Amino acid sequence: MSNRKFKKVQELEPAKSHQKLSPFSEIEQLFENFFPGHWMTPRGLELTNWPNFQLPSSMQSPKVDVINRDNEVIVRAEMPGFNKDEIKLSLTENSVTISGERKTEEKEEEGEYHRCEISQSSFSRTVGLPSYVDSQASKAKFKDGMLELTLPKTEKTKRIDLKID
């Protein structure tokens, strides 16, 4: 027999179970470790409440209601802060496109102090209609930030640009 002496082997703790991550989660975790905070978040857009995340109002499309009546379709859109000159409507036989663009410029001058801020926002939203409408007989009204289109039902029609009264 040999006189070999054996050292006591250090006991190891059992491995901790790790949750299996998808490849995308692994990459995101790597970036999160390297760039703490919200590394993919543009400035000013905090995503801490992701399920309820909304774009700033300057980047949102208007909320739209479509009401299907017997002889007409009514489309209402919330357009707060817009003037009727900043809104464009385009109509087809079975859809309406509402678009808008707003530009503002603020200037402030006091002695040697000069400040100028320019902002621009735009949107475009196309809404499908439940039936064909007569684009020639359609009407649009705009009052207190609310746009209302009255679209009489008919057979197929061609696309036209609609002016706001």
From TrEMBL:
Residues 1-21 are annotated as: Disordered. Transmembrane segments: none annotated. Pfam families: HSP20. Residues 59-163 form the CS domain. InterPro entries: A-crystallin/Hsp20_dom (IPR002068), CS_dom (IPR007052), HSP20-like_chaperone (IPR008978), Small_HSP (IPR031107). CDD domains: ACD_sHsps-like. Residues 55-165 form the SHSP domain. Belongs to the small heat shock protein (HSP20) family. This is Hsp20/alpha crystallin family protein.
